[in-house]
Amino acid sequence: MNRVTKRRVHFIGVGGIGVSALAQWYLIEGWQVTGSDAARSLITDDLVRRGAVIRIGSHNASPLRPNVSRVIYSLAVKNENPERQKARLLKIPQFSYAEALGELTQNYKTIAIAGAHGKSTTTALVGLMLSEAGFDPTVIVGTRLKEFGNSNFRKGKSEWLVLEADEFHGSFLRYRPFAAIVTNLDREHLEFYKTFGNIKKAFRTFVGQVKTGGYLVLNREDRNLASFKLKTRTNIAYYDRQGMRAVKVKSLLKIPGVHNHSNAMACDVLGNALGISISVRDKVFSRFTGTWRRFEYRGIYP
Predict the structure, then answer these.
(1) Over the stretch 172-193, which tens digit does the pLDDT of each residue have?
(2) How is domain 8-100 classified at the architecture level of CATH?
(3) What is the rounded distance in angstroms from the CA atom of residue 203 to the CA atom of residue 221?
(4) For strand 94-96 and strand 235-239, is the pairing parallel, antiparallel, or unpaired?
(5) Which of 216, 217, 215, 212 is nearest to 233 (CA)?
(6) In 119-243, alpha helices (H)
(7) Which residue from 2, 155, 190, 197 puts its CA 20 to 30 A from 283's CA?
(8) Contact at 8 Å (CB) between 26 and 52?
């Protein structure tokens, strides 16, 4: 990506939780960022404060200018969208969010967190763990974190990237991570995958894309993942909620639910694989009070 000549990017559907995080990356890298979205939100307001120029309202072609170097669009934006049509007319390269993020991962040592449920919380925990351990990662997560200034994005200065890898329309197949966590499988997005068999096939493809010598962390308590027959040259580790270490982690957590205990164990096993000390992992678990709109810890009231 040429940082001298490629300086303007336009996002369609910029208020999306993933797209907006990517827009922040471009802003910090010095690109001029414009965007459009159907509705104003906390996320679009935050982007404007950070320097983006955003048009709110029904989509039309007016925000797009010939000097834009690339257009990035949410998968919710259809091919017939007026801005996408104008981009084709102007011969501006277009990328889906997944394509653009996949391109970005090529410049990083990427940790991708996938699964039907628990992705956002697990991504948040992994990002906070690496930050506490001094890895200084860039993090893209599908929720807002108070630790990131109530943002869904953290820009680090290292080679590490932690991202939430959504299976929606096969998006996660665009990534080639160094390490990956898969939390569980479920019958999600059947409008695209049609059958549960196709979902399992997509996840098998995803885990097969983890780089040689990297790490793959799977949930032993998910019977579909536990039965995966994997042919990979990565280091595979399983996690569950059993044993003394799991008891210790549970005692530290402020976020409720067996699902969050499981998410924390995924983070713990990956941290161990990366050589992160137990004291750092425990500190993250004890401090974490949840993410935006996901069982946020508010305190104890009489």
Answers:
(1) 999 999 999 999 999 988 998 9
(2) 3-Layer(aba) Sandwich (3.40)
(3) 16
(4) unpaired
(5) 212
(6) 119-132, 190-193, 196-208, 223-226
(7) 155
(8) no
